[in-house]
Write a structure and sequence with these properties.
Blueprint (H helix, E strand, L loop, with lengths): L3 H6 L11 H7 L5 E6 L10 H12 L2 E10 L3 E11 L5 E3 L3 E3 L2 E3 L3 E6 L13 E4 L4 H21 L4 H30 L24 H13 L3
Parallel strand pairs: 1-4
Antiparallel strand pairs: 1-7, 2-3, 2-7, 3-4, 3-8, 5-6
């Protein structure tokens, strides 16, 4: 199976000039991408950049800068709404540690696009993604990632304890479907398969006529059935 951790550990874009302008245009940011140094705060919480920067300002001064952290793997780009710290001399630092499946990930620098018009409203913001390949299987991975975002937003809604237990059971059904589908697509892509290849489920049907058939509609229907909402 594909080593997703290895893929993530090599996900900082190596050449800013190769980031497509059409992708940067989607961010609607006010600045160009730049490399900024990672200088983790020892007390900072994993993947909690907005709160971490607020605490850092109280401790050391400076200010919060909002924008997008850009990540790249073999097949796609994605921009993550992110907060970094600007010190009193105007230098930017990423102070927030990251992890994957409970293991810390280490970077010496990240690619950051500053956006002086951005506003953090305390809500989860979906990543902006772009397929870098000619393989439409990657597009299906991006669709699945969008539904993971939808699922996380559902889980963040206030609810009673009884409703929470029911929600978690339903969420686990959808998480299982999505995560397995993503893992299988990575395997197909790494074997240079396409939507015309046999589906990963051994149905002997082409993927586009099996699990790939109207994937977005299938997920939308499943979400409505589970959560009784759009």
């Amino acid at each position: 199976m594909i080593d997703i951790k290895k893929r993530l550990l090599n996900s900082v874009p190596k050449n800013l000039a190769e980031i497509p302008h059409i992708f940067l245009a989607k961010l609607k940011a006010t600045n160009s991408p730049q490399y900024i140094e990672v200088k983790l705060a020892k007390w900072a919480k994993q993947c909690d950049c907005f709160n971490n920067v607020s605490i850092k300002i109280k401790k050391s001064g400076g200010k919060q800068v909002l924008g997008w952290a850009i990540w790249q793997d073999t097949y796609a780009l994605q921009a993550e709404f992110h907060s970094v710290w600007e010190n009193k001399n105007g230098k930017l630092y990423d102070i927030t540690p990251r992890e994957f499946e409970g293991e810390k990930l280490y970077y010496s620098q990240i690619v950051f696009v500053r956006d002086d018009n951005a506003i953090y409203k305390g809500e989860l913001v979906n990543n902006i993604r772009m397929n870098l390949s000619n393989n439409p299987l990657v597009d299906d991975i991006l669709v699945l990632c969008d539904f993971l975002y939808y699922l996380m937003k559902i889980e963040l809604k206030p609810t009673s304890q009884d409703d929470l237990e029911s929600l978690n059971k339903k969420a686990n059904i959808l998480y299982g479907f999505i995560n397995k589908h993503i893992a299988m697509l990575h395997i197909m892509i790494d074997k240079e398969h396409t939507i015309d290849s046999l589906c990963f489920c051994n149905s002997r049907k082409e993927y586009k006529k099996c699990h790939g058939y109207q994937l977005k509609d299938t997920l939308t229907k499943l979400c409505k059935e589970l959560f009784e909402c759009e």
